[in-house]
Structure formats: C-alpha cells, structure tokens
Amino acid sequence: MNKTKKEKALDNKCPSCKAPIFFSPSLGKWKCDYCGSEFTLEEIEAKTNAGAKANNEPVKTKSDEKETEVTKTETIEEDNTNYITYRCENCGAEIITDEETAATFCLYCGNTAILKNKLSGKFAPNYVIPFKIEKEKAIEAFKNLSQGRPFVPKDFNNENNIEKIKGLYVPFWLFDVSVDGSIDCDATKVSNWTSGDRAYTKKEIYKLYRTGSMKFNNIPADGSTRFDDKIMNSIEPFNFKDLVPYNHAYLSGFFAEKYDTEADAVAEIATDRAKETAKDTMYNDSHYYTTKVITNNTLEPTVIEHKYVLLPVWMVNVKYKDKYYIFAMNGQTGEFIGDIPLDKKKVILWTILMFVGIFVLIIIISLILHFLGGNA
Fold first, then answer.
1. Fewest 10 Å CB contacts: which of 80, 146, 182, 214?
2. CA 61, 65, 67, 73 torsion: positive or negative?
3. Where are the domains of the chain?
4. Which residues on adjacent β-strands are paired with residue 327?
5. pLDDT, tens only, 135-164
6. 221-262 pLDDT per residue, tens
C-alpha cells in the first residue's frame, strides 16, 4: 500500500551567496564553503528562518532559508520499513531515506534537507549538544585503529570504508531522578596482633544502617531502537553543560533521527542507574569495616522530569566477511569505540612464524650449550 503526500523540507542557505551552509564544530559557527562567510547563531536567526525553536513556532523574519516540497512515499515492504523520497531543490537528484530520519543532505550536491514534521509536535527536541569534533578527527581515529594491531585486515580501513563515516544526531531522553530510602548491612571488623609467641584475632560484628535522599540530573537513555544500547553507553559520558536550546540550524550538514521509543519505555533504565549509584554511595560511606553485606534495601527512585535531546555521534558501519562492524565516536568528547575484526590468515601465519622462531631459538641455544660443554 502506497501513500503519497507533500511535506516541507528546510534547505539552510548562506545569507550572503545562497549556497548550502553547514555548522562547523571547530568554529562553533555556520560557515559557507563557497564564499567563506561565517555566521553566529544570532546572525543565522536574524537572516534566515532558523529561529524556529523546539515548539516549531517560526520566527517571522526575512527568510533566506528555503522550504521545498517533499514527496513522501510510505511503502509497506517485507520488513515493514517506511521510506521517504524527496527531490533535491538544488540539483534535482532523488534522495531516498527512511521514516525515522529527520535530517539528511543530498549526496550529490550537499544540499541540506531537514524534514520539519519529524522534529515537530511531540518529536520536537528540547535541547541539543552541537558537534565539537570535526569529521577529519573522526576519520583520523578510524585510520589509527590498525596501529599496534597487526591482525587487523589490510583492507579494513580503506578509503571506501572511511567515506562511510557520518555525523549523526542520536535521540536521547535525559531523566532527573530522586532516590529516597535506606540500606541495612551486616558488617565485620577484624583485627590481628601478636603477644609473645601467640597470635590473636579479634572479630567484631556490626549492624549498619544508612538512610538518605539523593538527586541525579541528566541520566541518559537511548531513544532509538536502531542503535545498540551497549555502543551508546560506551561513548558516554557527555558533558551536559554544553546543552543548548534546540535549533534546527545545528543539523545543517549532519544526519539526525527522531526517537521511536517513548520516555516511559526507557525510564526504568535511568531509575535503575540512579538506584544503583545511590546504593553504592551508601554502601561505600563507611570504610572502616573488613566486610559488608547488604541485607535490606528500601531505596525507591522517582522520575522528577525528563527532556528530549539530540546528541552528536560520528558513526561508521563496515562490512567485512559478511559481517557488520559498528564504530562510534562521541561527537563532543572524541571517545571512540568499536569491535575490530581479525584476519584469521594473519593470526595463523603469525602463530606458525612464532612457533618456528621459538623452535629455531631452542636449537641454537642447545647447540651453543653443547659446544660450550664439549670445550669444557
């Protein structure tokens, strides 16, 4: 079943020359690669329609930001995936993306397409952390993966794979959580001493009781089922001091996704993290005991509020030997993680060479010892 309708896409244009303009992580500004102009957020808001905030109320200014019609085609495929097609306003190329993508750009001419309906209403983000790491640094980190790793396949980080690196704003929920309650512990304190020729051990048994109230701010939980939670957790932490009110201008030159998991569905992830941290804090409060075992735990977490945010991630998905390997870099801090494949032929060859080398070394040592023994 196909449904077709018109939507609006935003094409961020340079106020000076009308060429596509992108956000520069290193400058913290918007830069035009054609005329070299640079603009602050205030200038972009004043000269374009980038003043649209999270509530998607457009600022009524003279707009150099172009809204173009997008042909949306919802196609029910075998995997139940909905696809969107749109025609680039600049070069006329047809771009295909999926239903969850909120921002992309034309791979032929680089023209930005921000699909407003994906980031409006309940899908409107409250905040965003803009990219701080340039694409060149992400590429350099990916190239350096093979350094000090002799078993990495030779063609793993070739230019074709490097070109797949893309900057992506990933949807997250941030939770503020309070934890109240107490823990009970059985504890022991053991001391040893000697007197004369006798050794003594003294074991004291205690009942510990700790109670308190704690508040935790900005506990993140991945808002998309399309990203592996283990990978997203591994590139934490983000510095949430860099959160700024959402503005779609930050998406220029990057991809973005909208959430497909409601806050209620992932709230337990945040409350469990808060509860475990509170429990560990209370448990570690006393350092003077030899052993401590928690016997009772009445800690109860409560969500105070939550926010919907977009966080920056550089990602590359590499296919090697019919298997996909995902690598991710925190677009704010530069934290880089991923599983690296092994070239089995290199491993086998190295094992054989190592065995032969050790065998030859043993023979040489034996001959030297035999020679020295014969001369003695």
1. 80
2. negative
3. 2-124, 170-338, 343-376
4. 316, 338
5. 888 888 877 776 656 666 666 666 666 667
6. 999 888 888 888 888 899 999 999 998 889 888 888 889 899
CA distances in angstroms from 168 to 37, 110, 304, listed in the order given:
24, 15, 29
Strand partners, 86: 95
Amino acid at 326: I
Would you state the structure tokens that stand for residue 104, as one six-digit string? 């992309």
Residue 216 CB neighbour total at 10 angstroms = 19
- CA 234 to CA 220: how far, in whole Å? 12
Rounded-to-integer distance, Cα 180 and Cα 185, Å: 17
Look at the alpha carbons of 16, 19, 23, 27 in this order and tell me if their dihedral is positive or negative: negative
Three-state SS string over the chain comes to CEEEEEEEEEECECCCCCCECEEECCCCEEECCCCCCEECHHHHHHHCCCCCCCCCCCCCCCCCCEEEEEEEEEECCCCCCCEEEEECCCCCCEEEEECCEEEEECCCCCCEEEEHHHHCHHHCCCEECCCCCCHHHHHHHHHHHHCCCCCCCCCCCCHHHHCCCEEEEEEEEEEEEEEEEEEEEEEEEEEEEEECCEEEEEEEEEEEEEEEEEEEEEEEEECCCCCCHHHHHHCCCCCHHHCEECCHHHHCCCEEECCCCCHHHHHHHHHHHHHHHHHHHHHCCCCCCCEEEEEEECCEEEEEEEEEEEEEEEEEEEEECCEEEEEEEECCCCCEEECCCCCHHHHHHHHHHHHHHHHHHHHHHHHHHHHHHHHC
Residues 83 and 106: their CA atoms lie apart, in Å, by: 16
Model pLDDT, residue 234 = 87
CA distance 57 to 338: 40
